[in-house]
Amino acid sequence: MILRAASPPRRALVRQRAAAHVVVAAATLAATACAYAAWPDQNALRPAGIQAMRIASLWHWTLLVCALVFAAVLAALALALWRRARAGTVPPAEDGRPLPPDPR
């Protein structure tokens, strides 16, 4: 028979570990908040340096070109769908019979 009287109860160990995890999480959160507060006020919408401003300018031009290409593709798609819908109505032949389908 093995006696385990010397070891603390299991619930106490679980509580100690949970408390340690809470302390570590709180310390990590506090360190992250301090690091964020010390960081300079710069982001993608407000570049701070000369090179960052040039990169932001290039990004804005790229975004503009991509938006124009996207609009052109949507316009071409709309035109193709409109023309296809209009081409679906085949005029009847002279004698009243519909024309045969195009073999393409």
From TrEMBL:
Main localisation: membrane
Entry keywords, A to Z: Membrane, Transmembrane, Transmembrane helix
GO CC aspect terms: membrane
Matches recorded under Gene3D superfamilies: 1.10.287.90
Transmembrane segments: 61-82
Presence of keyword Membrane: yes
Signal peptide: none
Subcellular location: Membrane
UniProt-recorded name of the protein: Uncharacterized protein
Species this protein is from: Burkholderia latens
